[in-house]
Amino acid sequence: MKRVQFSGTPLPYFFVLPQIAIVIVFFLWPAAQAVYKSFLLEDAWGLTSQFVWFRNYEDMVLDADWVNTAVFTVIFSMIIAFASLAIALTLAVRANDILRGASTYKTLLIWTYAVAPAVAGLIGNLLFNPLIGSMTHLLHALGWEFDRASNGFDAAFMISLIAVWKQVSVNFIFFLAGLQGISKSVQEAAILDCRSRSKRFWTITFPLLAPTTFFLLVINMTYAFFDTFGIIDTTTRGAPGGSTQTLVYKVYTDGFIGADLGGSSAQSVVLLLMVLVLTAFQFRFIERKVHY
Amino acid sequence: MADIAIRDVEKRYANGAHAVKGVSVDVADGELLVLLGPSGCGKSTLLRMVAGLETITDGEVAIDGARVNDVSPADRDIAMVFQNYALYPHMSVFDNLAYGLRNRGVTKADIKHRVDEAAAILGIEDYLDRRPNQLSGGQRQRVAMGRAIVREPKAFLFDEPLSNLDAKLRVHMRIEIKRLQRRLGVTSLYVTHDQVEAMTLGDRLIVLNAGKAEQIGTPMELYENPQTLFVAGFIGTPAMNLLPGKLENGGVTFEGGANLQLPDMLSGKAASKDVVLGIRPEHLHAATGQAEVGFTVTTDLIEHLGADTLLHGRLGGNGGPALTARLPGKVFGSESDRNGFGIVPDKLFLFDAGTGHRI
Ligand SMILES: Nc1ncnc2c1ncn2[C@@H]1O[C@H](COP(=O)(O)OP(=O)(O)OP(=O)(O)O)[C@@H](O)[C@H]1O
Ligand SMILES: [Mg+2]
Fold it and tell me: Would residue A197 count as lying in a domain?
């Protein structure tokens, strides 16, 4: 990393002022509010509040609902991250080999990036509609008694599928760029050194993509944690019985629907810490390890 | 070790580019053949077809007598050294050398032995644990060579392996490659566009021009007996003087009116009127007035190179074709003192301007 030293003049600080203002107003201030609120217990109408130290946090981790949601979120995120990375990588490797019509393939694969999560959710709703959804029909035809309304696994399967479908495009772009960044002659040297195509992929291509993969892993985890909100809100709304509820969605339902501002603030502070750790981990790792 | 036979090989790329147009050449066991030619003439394409990195549109490549057109690159038992070295950036030098052996099922002990041996030959023993990005250009070059020699392949293929090095290191590595190739006796194909490199390295040269072989021969054959205008102009520094003119009654008339009487044996064979007279700068000497062809040249610039001196001027005065002469040692006097030159008749080359062929 290059470090630049500004000497004396305050001018550079003036130029970053708008950015800093935005960060303060839209991020630091609400974050501080959340931290503050997480120490308060408010009555149901929000008229009085009481400073309760870590009570909200205690309640949170002792709450079986929250623990279930946390476990679901972690598994859900890992599945989404892994599946969308694996699919995107496979597609990128194939697209990278194609010479004719390459740009058509790429456009077709990339366009879902432009679909907003909520819209993806609506499309999913239609496809998985219990009566007229073509995916429902397909799954039924395959012998799977798919029932998104009452079966938690089926509902989770549906939102995972939508979330992965939406995320593959971003991963695809990055993987394709990463693949195109691998020196052609290095790949050719490997062709002379190793007959097996799959072995070449795992010993040369994949390690050389490690920086991209690692970066995407963090991006995808963050996506699965936070950006799936729109999909969940337009499809299952956490149903059946909270089995498709992620931590973020629970913050929303507890805070805005359950009106438990203190508890939901405590939850969002925990989420904030998770993101901080993830990001810090990414920066350290990328700076140190996966750089050639 | 093996011989390589290239027969009527053609290459048409998917975009229609006709890169190689029917080239045939045989590389003998242990021989180093240089593919020489200007940029874009198809040298790399030909080499890569031998390696298997490009498909062969037509014709045949045989290694050790066996046709390899449809054999996968890894099974052709050849090793290639790339222009930018193409080392695996995520592997140590040791692993770079060992990778090809591991994939061929060589035992661990044998790999260690072979890598150590190759590293000792190339003087890279101290770097075996390093990553390629921790090495200098010259060291990387050695590692790339090492990766080729540990494999003990039937043939080495080099694609301009020295062009990323500075001039001094290039000369040094050139000598080293030559020694190594002699010592190991491995059949080699070597691509370069540098004619000095080609002359010093090659047992034989094949000069390519726009996808066609212009001439194949030893460096001295090409120098002394260029069969085409292209080869004549390409081989030798400074380049051969090529003077276009018209053949008239046993002599050549150049632009600007200068006329040169040719020996009968040359002028008699000419079929066409438009010719090009070729004169190597080093074959010219100060006029002696004896049995030779004499020139009058208006010299306008003298370059002192130390061992030699270059004289630049125009044949027969202003308006005549440019001519360069290279005289040994130091030349005294000013430009105006230097205008009489002579050449032994059998050092004159006459080419047909239309076909480019030697007359
Ligand atoms: N993959 C390709 N697709 C289409 N045309 C190509 C391809 N590779 C090379 N060519 C064309 O084939 C011709 C020969 O290319 P080649 O790389 O063999 O030249 P070269 O003699 O090695 O030149 P240089 O000295 O610049 O490396 C060129 O005209 C080039 O544009
Ligand atoms: Mg080339």
Answer: yes
Identity of the residue in A196, A199, A208 whose CB atom sits nearest the CB atom of B90:
A208
Domain assignments of chain B as residue spans, ordered by start:
4-233, 238-352
Return all residues near B140 (Cβ < 8 A) that are at least 6 apart. B85, B87, B132
Task: Please give the distance, rounded to the nearest whole angstrom, from the Cα atom of residue B88 to the centre of ligand 2.
Answer: 21
Contact A98, A105 (CB under 8 A): yes
- B298 reaches A (C-beta below 8 A): no
**A240-277 pLDDT per residue, tens:** 877 788 888 888 888 777 777 777 888 888 888 888 88
Q: Do A203 and B99 touch (CB under 8 A)?
A: yes
Over residues B62-95, the pLDDT tens digits come to 999 999 999 999 999 999 999 999 999 999 999 9
Contact B84 A203 (CB under 8 A): no
Count A/B contacts: CB-CB distance under 8 Å: 62
CATH homologous superfamily of B4-233 equals: P-loop containing nucleotide triphosphate hydrolases (3.40.50.300)
Residues in chain A: 292
Q: Which residues from A are below 8 Å from B when comparing CB atoms?
A: 99-100, 183, 185-186, 188-196, 199, 203-204, 207-208, 210, 292
Residues of chain B with pLDDT under 70: 1, 265, 267-272, 289, 291
Instruction: Tell me the CATH number at A164.
Output: 1.10.3720.10
Q: What is the pTM of this model?
A: 0.82
CATH top-level class of B238-352? mainly beta
Among residues B154, B184, B167, B162, the alpha carbon closest in space to that of B62 is found at: B154
Per DSSP bridges, beta strands B274-279 and B241-248 are: antiparallel
| A194-223: pLDDT as tens digits | 999 999 999 999 999 988 898 898 889 888
Question: Considering the domain boundaries, does residue A181 fall inside one?
Answer: yes
